[in-house]
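User: quick one, fold this
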Amino acid sequence: MGNNIRKTVILIHPRVHPTSEYCQVPLGILAVAGPLEKAGYGLLLVDAMVDRDYKNKILGRLDDAICVGISCMTGYQIQNGLEIAKAIKEKDPSITIVWGGWHPCVAPEQTIAHPLVDAVVVGQGETAMLEITRCLENFLPLRGIKGVFYKENGVVVKNEARSFEDINSFPPIPYHLVDVEKYLIKGDELGNRVINFISSRGCPFQCGFCAEFKVNKRRWSALSAERVVSEIETLVTSYKVDGVIFNDSNFFVDKSRVERICRGIISRNLAVKWGKANGHPRHLLNYDSGLWSLMHKSGLRSILIGAESGSQQVLDLIRKDCTVEEIERLAKLCRQFGVKIWYSFILGLFPDPVSDGFGQTLALIKTIKSIDPDSEVLVFSYIVYPGTPLYERAGRLGLVQPSTLEGWAGYILDNTNCSLAEKSYQQILEPLVDFYLPLAYRLNALKIRMHNSVIKSLLFTFFHELALFRCEHNLFSLPWEWYLYKHIGRRFKLLS
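Assistant:
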């Protein structure tokens, strides 16, 4: 895996979806770039979601590249990543391609087995990628670098696992390495120049459908409150940001840290709203009224809650560690303090509607909307992902799981072929998840997208009234509106 005298590291964020244009700052490759930049290496960051000519941009810099890093989640990013890796190897077979991100972390053996993969980073990548780069720069093998699988003379070598590192030891996210203007979200509930940010890693809970459990093993590491406030201040002063989306898996773990962040935002007079921060009902219900008032005063406007199901039996089976009653109590609490909740639910965790708690979930959604009409509801069909506690259960239930990297490339969030639901139940779920529930209950978020189009507004009103009637009365047979939308409505992008 030798190189000529080269000075640059290329870090790639493949496309997340073949057609969607929605994107956020690729914090994963930026986090890895921080230590490399600090060590003096040249960097080329390529985000295929915003760079139209990304392949030529990459190929044009290979002559100066020490190595290439590709970060991916399960799904289409693997497919696009493999396409990019193939083009790289065709031009320069000697270049070392290092894969990291969620999927390589949960399925490292399958990932390293692929011929277009030379090394895999398992776990946090900041230090590991820096050590890999130093070895390759000096023509040394990757032996001994913790948290790395690699190939030596065609043989896979699995190095010792790397310990979970305190993220305060890593440099700030180097936003200056990307064109921030391309990522700013306009017309959002948080503002007109909204950007994503991350202040912690990991989650102490053990939800059965989530890969956090395998990747971070219930560990949680957070930036100090002082550093969070300073980095938000930099975003405000450098990029005129007026809204911050927190991408943390669980932002609200440490109540004291949250309080210090809020006080810091207020004391520095930062004119910024913040939100869409993930939280767990049990943490948030332990916050007193004083802290809720403080959070709102500091700019908190919304949180994300994984409610998952209206069935207590399902919540217990997936180890959600909360009750339906707690979900309802949190809805009332947030309504009281003017904080909107974005709820996510999962259907298809079990083969049939009864065992899946289908009716109870719809009932809980209606209850939540009655408590707070401004709340937003996101419903997903369950897809089995590798590395999750429910993964082995899916195999026992007969789901054929991919055995190769290419196989996992077909896993896309709206792909019902990856579901545990029986075919008859899938036929209910597809129009319900993709059409009826979004149009019935994501009223506020969807209206924002079409306020400047008369045709879209009329179509939305027409489909919304029909969808709401069906959901309120649980009438999902003969979904003619769904077929009509697929042939007519989709061209107006009402739901995308």
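User: anything notable?
Assistant: The chain is about 40% helix and 15% strand.
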